[in-house]
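Hi team,

Below is the intake form for Tripartite tricarboxylate transporter substrate binding protein from Siccirubricoccus soli. Please confirm the fields before the structure is written into the shared record.

FORM ID: S-0412
PROTEIN: Tripartite tricarboxylate transporter substrate binding protein
ORGANISM: Siccirubricoccus soli
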Amino acid sequence: MRRRSLSLLATALLASPALAQGGFPSRPIRMIVSLPPGGATDIWARLVAEPMGAFLEQPVVIENRAGAGGMIGTEAVKNAAPDGHTILFHIASFVQTPVVLRRWPYQPLEDFAFLGKMGTTPLPFCVRGDIPVRTLPEFLAYARSRQLSYGTYSPGSSGHAFAQLFSDTEKLDMVPVHYRGEAPMLQDVLGGRIDCAFHSMTGSGDHIRAGRVRPLATLGRDGIPSLPQVPTFLSLGYREEDFGQNGFVGTFAPRGVPPAIHARLAEAFRHAMTRPEVLQRLREMDTIAQYLPPDAFREDVASYMRFWSALVDRMGLSVEG
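The structure came back. Fields below:
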């Protein structure tokens, strides 16, 4: 009888997720965000950190490690111990920046274990609210009569490449001004120091709706859910192979994380993406929830990397990193 009781106890202990995975997590988990506080990426990360922490029964603590277009924080995760206690929250700059800078401190598809995709977000091209234009054709006439500057939230980002592509396509000769994140870029747009930029609805939506920043057109196929009057570039006649993509948002762990821990982290992220309050907040920020599990997310990133590499090659785009 005693042997049977001990056997049942051992079975129960082995079935415990924490014990079966060596006590994981045994301390708070660092979620590194490769861009500064206050921008869209930081906001998204904080949105899922709390429900992930509740699921894992350990806090998920945000650590902003900005610089080099997001590569500093990303490389830090690549080099972290693969024990599941350090993970990465990132956007499409994960693949964009090394392609544009022609510098590879990490290999996106080989050096990370994919945890899951959150979704994507429309990126509208916007002007300062005091610039006297309401449509993209009006902006083109305005821009051709003067030298304008455009902001980017990092060199090699979507905001950089698509603004430069737009400038090249329309022969506007706009001057890029690079920042370390969307929040400082937005402050200079609001302060009148730069003229236009691609923004995220998550980071800039309140200012866009208040009229302090005016959207003229947006990337992607589907438009902005809360602002259906804003046309897509495609509807205005621009090419889908140039302006038809939106990028991705998601989570990663270092390569080599044990399978059981990888599965636990991926399940924690999936759990966060089922929470009604998370989905509601994403809708409010015009972020389009498109959860994908690890393998499907990896394929999604690989597809985007092919698109991005082809676009950058066509443009001949490169910057010093």
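SUMMARY LINE: Residues 1-21 have pLDDT under 50 and may be disordered.

Thanks, M.
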